[in-house]
Write a structure and sequence with these properties.
CATH topology of the largest domain in chain A: Nucleotidyltransferase, domain 5
Strand order of the largest sheet of chain A: 3-2-1-4-7
CATH architecture of the largest domain in chain A: 2-Layer Sandwich
Number of domains of chain A: 2
Largest interface: A-B, 49 and 49 residues
Oligomer: homotetramer
Shape of chain A: globular
Chain lengths: 317, 317, 317, 317
């Protein structure tokens, strides 16, 4: 039995037909439109092409950025797509397929975490936490070998763990959320702060952003850090510190055996993970009297979310 | 089959023989000695008396304050009993019973949480969090109807969730832990702060503590709050606020359907729970776009921990 | 003897000839160019017109946004005008006047504070602090009846008083500065946060900003607050709270007898000042055992800075 | 003309007769009683002995821990001596001397700061801040060569500058005051925290305090730090960090040219001052675009407060 996995990203919609061993048989990729109806049309198109190749696709898993209700069919809210407020995404797609395909919707960080658990660095773990350090900070929790969604589908909103009382204003309307201090956005913030305070050390970064600190992007900081630039390493040291502190907070609740760190920002490897590991130990409760979770980079690659979505949908069906 | 539940508290050791329906058949209570060996002797004595009455006690569950290893037999650390560092408590007691009784050790907050789940306010919940507001702040997590211990036995250390960066010094060696802001200790702190800053409003509390603010105890603040004293209500408002904030942080990880609030401090009821509920909503991520967990006071009574320990041990056996 | 006061604002350059009693005799206003040379030309033009009317202008006081060196002649840094790094502004203008006019440069918040001290709410005070709540938060300190500049011209940078450890990222490169929590920018932040968290209460504000929360401006929040809108009042309550906390911090250093609050945001009057006064008392050290400073709105009007600059220059000369 | 300087310390009352060049001519020292009347008797006794030797003592300056009213005669509050609430100390002593001696009362940190200014590291400074790192954190401010007391006698309460929102509970009833993070008390806190979290590194400190971390005293941490002990150096690093941060906050208000660091804790010298200097630069607003104040240890010795009190009284008279 084949399953279609769909990943609705900020810039592209990707789709893949997977077999029961999570092997990808065929794959598609189209730009993401902004209107929900057009998004649905894109998904239908991929579904139809998949049908043509594989004749029967009884199940579809969709990975979407935003809050998914516990029914795993409805988007309650999305920061990216304004009209996804209480939006019955699974209903719409099932209608478009004439109810020939059962649809399961899952939060994108959950899909990435599950993909990593079944295919990547998470294999063999029992209780695992995945943190996806992208523009923001996504989270997924595996408990006793199963994706944990919480009672209302809102578990693992780890980017919004409150880390600083009266801290940085977050787009969610709260202050001091973890993702304000450890994310691609935070990396840019720390780098800009550094340039403003230590202009003599900011030369390489200013060069990379053409002299205007406001146009500085995370990938420039990554490049400079890999070249050994001191200020870029400082910025990674700071988001690494807060990544460690955030993991220590999570451990006080979940006590996992493994943290997997994914997302674009982790491409620098130990430049991020070393300060994260150091500060995890520094801020972990009773650190001297307990076993410590492993902290590993993600290994399942960019398709993990799409494959994870397909796998989760097949298990559900 | 009967099980002996033992609760090693700061001032008393309590024991109860329970049947398979968690009904208490007989009960004992002795003062807690300070030396581990004497504690073991007390437990043996209760065991022997239990044997005399019920002839066969194949299983014993022990509730103990401190960190219990994942083997559920060893105390790795206890703030109360200095010699419980890597202490094989289950081994010791099993030896004393000539290996006729299998012993399971569990953290006291976990036992109280489990007792509440099977007998009290937690019945019917799927994912529940219990917070025990005593001298400190204890936590227990039930996931999918089972006590969740984490990979190394250290889950639900919710009193040490970091709430304030560079916050109040905690006895654990970290700063800003939740229990510094919501606990009996915190209640005394806030009340003392209030008296120092608003001496004209502190009259009733000063009366209750004989004029010396350093001797003020939590139960005096409870009494004054129940009389309607403004300053005492302020102090409860503050620990209630932080209880709400702590629950909101936990919800970002666990998304439970229920919080049960136990411990001596909750005896004032809505004086504590109203500000907790208000601030839970105020600090909950995406509060306007999600379902909210219930927040209820514990109802299973002071023996819940002892019975919970017995029940957990029987299930383990 | 007449003195020319110049106020280089973000949008306009204003000039006024004042007599020795700070009476304005004539006045000019032109748009602010972006280039330093063009700014200098504008100032020269105003100076020449002033000369034509009043024949002798031996002294000029310039109010400028940015850091002025202790020599009161050089701009060391300005957030608005990029080329003002170690820029000898007084030298340049004196050259343009053929050294017929002595120029004194002063920070704009200092000029506004001094204007308020000699003409407005500050009259009769001995030790006064002025806080200008505009886009950011400016400060001025009067000690023993004289403007206090500090040893290096950097006193009264009150908008950058650190209020929150690891707090909101500030444009200055630090975190948690007072102006991140009490300023026009902060007002917008708190209003946006409120709309995101309490969408049902955000209707009026969303109406005023045409539905896009990112285009919300401070003056819309002021308008809604004056209409009694709950969410707008909440936002003013928050910046008022932090204004009070900031004043309490300043009082721990300076212990003034008066705070004067100016800037565009204070146009709402007690909507801002009531929560500021309440929280000043709440956070003031030893509040119950001391006299308290008065907290008054500014009264000297929009020309106070320009007149203050002229007055300071005349005293200096 | 001779002046008597009196320093009422926590454990001893010291007195000295000084000439007009602040030279000490004779000196006394007695244990501090707890009752205000007995304190007064001790002072009278010293005064009488001073009279016997020097025949005429028209002026007395008293250095006292606590808040002194702007009249410089009345104690409004003292953390040490409970009955000093609105206590007319100068009146009492003048009565006891049959009004033959005029008494001026001054806060002890102010006296120490003034002593340092006239005799020690502060000579030649124009705007100086002294921080006395003892059990708590005292402050004194010199502006334009004069001791600055503020409008109500409450200036320079620098130990209560708010550094952390919702921070450590302070004895003053507020939270997050500077002295909770940089003082002898804070040194003990950080050392104890370190021992709890890194027991393997705590050996030397545990040895010094006889194995009970609760009996650890600041002077033990100083000794261990001077021996090179890693954990003790960590604790000094932390209070040094916060000393630097506190000075940076003060600089945003006062912009002094000099900070003088006194008190028992500074006896370790650069072990404290190096991290203080480093973090002062790290947290100073616009650090790259301004001149920086010097940071020096106090040099005037333990009698500076007593001599400072005498000098201030003579100037007043």
């Amino acid at each position: 039995m084949y399953t279609l996995g769909i990943d609705i990203g900020g810039t592209k919609i990707a789709g893949a037909v997977c077999d029961e061993n999570d092997k990808v048989l065929s794959q598609w990729r189209v730009p993401t439109p902004t209107d929900p109806d057009e998004i649905n049309d894109c998904i239908l198109e991929i579904y139809n092409e998949a049908l043509r190749l594989h004749s029967d696709i009884p199940t579809m898993g969709i990975s979407a950025a935003g809050n998914v209700k516990a029914d795993r069919r409805t988007m309650s809210f999305s920061a990216n797509i304004a009209k996804w407020i209480d939006y019955p995404l699974a209903d719409r797609i099932e209608e478009l397929t004439d109810h020939k395909c059962k649809v399961v919707v899952e939060n994108d960080a959950n899909c990435a975490g599950w993909g990593e658990y079944i295919l990547g660095a998470g294999r063999g773990s029992r209780n695992m936490v995945m943190l996806t350090v992208g523009t923001g900070l996504g989270g997924a929790i595996i408990i006793n070998g199963e994706l944990y969604r919480g009672s209302f589908g809102m578990a693992a909103e780890l980017g919004h763990l409150p880390m600083v009382s009266d801290g940085d204003f977050c787009g969610c309307g709260l202050r001091g959320c973890a993702e304000r201090y450890t994310s691609g956005n935070a990396l840019e913030h720390f780098a800009r702060s550094g340039i403003r305070r230590m202009p003599q050390k900011g030369k390489r970064l200013l060069e990379l952003c053409g002299g205007d600190v406001n146009t500085l992007e995370g990938k420039m900081v990554s490049q400079a850090a890999q070249e050994g630039d001191e200020l870029a390493l400082y910025a990674f040291g700071k988001i690494g510190e807060w990544l460690g502190r955030t993991m220590a907070a999570i451990a006080a609740v979940i006590d996992p055996d493994l943290f997997v760190i994914g997302g674009g920002v982790v491409s620098v490897g130990d430049i991020l993970l070393d300060p994260a590991r150091y500060n995890y130990t520094r801020f972990l409760q009773a650190a001297a009297y307990r076993e410590h979770a492993k902290i590993l980079p993600a290994t399942a690659g960019g398709d993990a979310g799409m494959i994870g979505a397909a796998d989760l949908a097949r298990r559900e069906a």
